[in-house]
Amino acid sequence: MSDLDGFRAETRTWLEANCPPEMREPVRDEADIYWGGRNASFKNDAQKAWFEACVAKGYTVPAWPTEYGGAGLTPPEAKVLREEMARIGARSPLSSFGIWMLGPALLHFGTEEQKLRFLNEIARGEIRWCQGYSEPGSGSDLVSLQTFGEDHGDHWLVNGQKIWTSYADKADWIFCLVRTDKNDKYRGISFLLFDMQTTGVSTKPILLISGNSPFCETFFDDVKVPKSYGEGIPAQVGEVNRGWDVAKYLLGHEREMISGADSSDRTAALGAVMKRHAGELDPILRAELAMFDVDALAYSAMGEKFLDEVKVGKAHPAQPNMMKYAGTELNKRRHELMMSVGGSRNLEWDSEETRGGKPSRDWLRTKANSIEGGTSEVMLNVIAKRILDLPGA
Amino acid sequence: MPLYYDDDQVMLADTARQFMAEEGAIAKQLRHWRDHVNQDGSVGCKDGFGHDLWKQFAEMGFTGMLVAEADGGLGMGHVEAGIVLEEIGRNLTPSPFLNSAVIAATALAQASDDLRGRYLPGLISGDSVFAVAVDEGAKHRPERIACTAEKSGNGFRLSGTKNFVVHGASADMIVVAARTSGADNDADGITLFAVPKDAAGISHDAVRLVDSSVAAHTRFDNVELDGDAVIGEVDGGREVLKKMLMAGRVGAAAEGVGVARGAMDMTVDYLKQRKQFGQLIGEFQALQHRAAHLYSEVEIARAVVIKAQQLLDAGADNADLMASVAKAKVAKAAGLAVKEGVQMHGGIGMTDEYDIGLYMKRDRALQEFLGDAYYHANRVAELSGY
Prior knowledge:
The complex is a heterodimer.
Chain A: H1 3-18, H2 45-57, H3 75-88, H4 97-109, H5 112-123, E1 129-132, E2 148-151, E3 155-166, E4 173-179, E5 189-195, E6 201-206, E7 215-226, E8 236-237, H6 243-259, H7 270-278, H8 283-311, H9 319-342, H10 358-366, H11 376-387
Chain B: H1 7-23, H2 30-34, H3 51-60, H4 78-91, H5 97-108, H6 113-125, E1 130-133, E2 148-152, E3 155-166, E4 173-179, E5 190-196, E6 202-208, E7 214-225, E8 230-231, H7 237-271, E9 275-276, E10 279-280, H8 285-314, H9 319-345, H10 356-368, H11 373-384
Parallel strand pairs in B: 1-4
Antiparallel strand pairs in B: 2-3, 3-7, 4-5, 5-8, 6-7, 9-10
Helix pairs in contact in B: 1-4, 4-7, 5-6, 5-7, 7-8, 7-9, 7-10, 8-9, 9-10, 9-11
């Protein structure tokens, strides 16, 4: 038996003992997702038990080093854990922009002290983070951002506005792109970390076409951001004025995340699921579902290949853009088809049968997939320029 | 198993790429044989490929890749065969590799010691060429087999017509799927035979296809076969046929990825050279976005082909499903690659002088071979339970 087989057997036993049956059911609504943070509450005991077991084992962030709250798993071990969790349908114990986005940036650019503090807080679900990137005038052209941090010696005085800040109204801290030098477009941005409870920070949820408000406008009005949180813990990640490097690095992670490359539940054929709901399918709809399933199953192989290649540094650095483009376009198609299969039932906006209009709200939500984190059009620009090396792109 | 090549496979890919780019190049093989003038003044070689190149394939070790080491082969898998096929696709190299060294070899792997001993040495040495006769109509419908093999003494008497038998008239042996019992649409009652070319009663109507390959409408008129021509079990041929079809579909998909990548590379290069309105046409965002979308589709197609190859080599339960996914996905992606290729080349894309049109022709034939995107998408639905 190889070490990996041993690890698989161990993992199976551990999951059997620690993952409650309720946590092996598909996620049905928002409350089934645990985000952590100062104000977090558990939906039920099973969610709490599962979360705490994972924190103790380092399985909220299995691949992070143990000193930062992870389990220090090697990439093959992490893959085994993912596979074993997928096998029993185990839910993710903790969803967090800290895990998906800030964590990777800190691991790459952070000081040792920053890592010890912030990564452990993230791993234990103590602090819920949000991301301050887009501004009303800076969407696809993010680098034109205007939120300004004036140097006041021991602190930055931050003024400006962010938009599309996911769950800003529920977040404890923000990682935020702030212009700290107006004379250099690319090398005049810092990647600042600060508490959302600081005086002068306010948020306002944005009502979307889905009727939900996952995003906010975030306002900074004379916000004093201390330059240091203690020995070796500057407020910025990376160097001052070099935050764009961090942002670019992070965008790669965001694109991977939105592309769904790491989701292991997309291998089942949509058509089979839909037939169970709908009974007989119209022949042309069945044909479209079949064509979709070809694309979706092929894309899941691409996701697997991409992750395998990332682990050993074989992936093209711009490949996340391709994954994001293809994955989000596919997800939009998936929800269009689900709406068609459901018929008038899926038009219901707040009925109990549809769990508060989940099908239609989810369908509308997917339309943002190809906008947030870089539009499909921007992804195609990047592929053209950086992978195909086309001129003047 | 990670979805990228290991060190040995990378080395094989380098070797295959270099070999095919030199020896299998379009000018040296496809155009050479297509434009070959025969003694009777007709144009186009009768086989559609060159036997010298097939011997070179043997020297490279390609012909026996999928043959077990115990039978004198290299005992490699479908990932390795796919590496060679991708280069064949990229160079549009006409060869009997897919039908002989992949599909027929897969059938023979299930055959008796006697049959393996009779046919495999010729395959490995590059002296023999094999064909595969499954289809009976113009579309791939292997569920329905009407060609019959009736018991006759110690053997069988084979009758019926097969279609799209690629280089059937040039083959030394044809693997034939025939009905030994039951009705045309029955799953059971199929038997596979290794039919030697000199068996009395075989006739071929060889036709040149759009991609300059040569296929046959092959007629079996009371062809007497010995009992030992049976591959696998009498009436139990579905299993062997399933293995052949999986190998063939995944192989054709691998070749299709090569066609797609060849066409895409050629097109992207052209976007960087051709000037109109005072600028390179590759600077136009309308073309950049289409090229980038194409890249994305071809990458995904390539990923699912490698996945299917690995599943096939591992004997996984879902290999059959993923073989159909791969075949359908490649048909769509390669189809897009050649269509965008011709369009983006503009007028010269329509000329015979430029190679891009040759990619379009080969893709069309490959799409049809062992089932097109519609057939396989439908199969994905059926195998998934809807």
